[in-house]
Amino acid sequence: MDLSIEIPRKALKFTGSMSINDCLKHYFTTEKMIDCGYKCAGCKKEVSIEKGMSIYRFPKILCIHLKRFYHSIMRKEKISSTVSIPTHDLDMR
Q1: I need a labelling partner for 14 at 20 to 30 A (CA). Which of 6, 43, 44, 52 fits?
Q2: Under a CB-based contact definition with an 8 Å cutoff, are residues 51 and 33 in contact?
Q3: How far is residue 12's CA from residue 82's CA, in Å, rounded to a whole number?
């Protein structure tokens, strides 16, 4: 299994570098989806929802892919900031 994790751009504007734990924290935060068109199955009314990611069971080997490119409507931009990764263990709690 592999995870494609983006590097949060807002944090990079202030620090210039970050840890892999910060990237993982950003990846697993819940996202509020307002006016997304989701309708409740019972009442057929449009509601706002929250979307979140979690890992049920970890594989023996986990590959983490860092998304280093930011795409906007007008241009593409490479994020060349430093991401520090621990050399021994990565705490995934």
Answers
A1: 52
A2: yes
A3: 9
Q: Fill in the amino acid letter for 86.
A: P
Strand intervals (E) in the chain: 2-6, 17-19, 31-33, 49-51, 63-67, 69-71, 76-78, 82-84
Listed in sequence order, the residues at least 6 apart from 53 whose beta carbon sits closer than 8 Å to its beta carbon are 27, 28
Q: Per-residue pLDDT for the chain (93 aa), expressed as one digit of tens each?
A: 788 888 877 655 555 778 888 888 888 888 888 777 777 777 877 777 888 888 888 888 888 888 888 777 787 777 777 888 877 777 666
pTM of the model: 0.68
Query: DSSP alpha helices (H): ranges in the chain?
Result: 9-15, 20-28
Q: Which two tokens stand for residue 84?
A: 């520090």
Q: Which two tokens stand for residue 49?
A: 């929802």
Spatial neighbors of 22 by CB under 8 A, at least 6 apart, are: 8, 11
